[in-house]
Amino acid sequence: MPKLTIQGVGEFDIAAGKRLVKALVEDAGTDQLHACGGKSRCTTCRVRFIEGEPESITEAEKETLKAKSVDEAGVRLSCQIVCEEDMTVELISRFEGSGRKDQGTPCADDIEPPPAWIKK
């Protein structure tokens, strides 16, 4: 079972294969945003990896990060990450202070769109 450490929040054991965005909201109870419902259309679910950043990325995530000019080191979309190894993240896109009416549309269990994995 992978361990998810969220800076300033705590450590959580997460079921292997669970989407990071769902682990952040359901297991850790954070206010992580996910406006597009986890479909890699926006960048509201951004996290910064401190440790354990996956070496692979979906083509959808790569294109979204490029299109939205998000090129900070270690910044990834939590909706496109699968919890397979231990990881430490910092939440950088939260509901608190966002001015949004809610965190976002519920996310499916599986990554959307169907992932095409490439090396980061």
UniProtKB/TrEMBL annotation:
> What are the residue boundaries of the 2Fe-2S ferredoxin-type domain, all occurrences included?
2-95
Query: Is Iron a UniProt keyword of this protein?
Result: yes
Q: Which GO terms describe its molecular function?
A: 2 iron, 2 sulfur cluster binding; electron transfer activity; metal ion binding
Entry's family note: Belongs to the adrenodoxin/putidaredoxin family.
Cite the InterPro entries for this sequence. Answer: 2Fe-2S_ferredoxin-like_sf (IPR036010), 2Fe-2S_ferredoxin-type (IPR001041), Adrenodoxin-like (IPR001055), Beta-grasp_dom_sf (IPR012675)
**Cofactor needs:** [2Fe-2S] cluster
UniProtKB keywords: 2Fe-2S, Iron, Iron-sulfur, Metal-binding
Q: Name one GO biological process term.
A: P450-containing electron transport chain
Region named Disordered: 97-120
Q: Indicate whether Metal-binding appears among the record's keywords.
A: yes
Name the UniProt record assigns to this protein: Na(+)-translocating NADH-quinone reductase subunit F
Tell me the classification of the organism that encodes this protein: Bacteria, Pseudomonadati, Planctomycetota, Planctomycetia, Pirellulales
Q: What SUPFAM superfamilies does its record include? A: 2Fe-2S ferredoxin-like
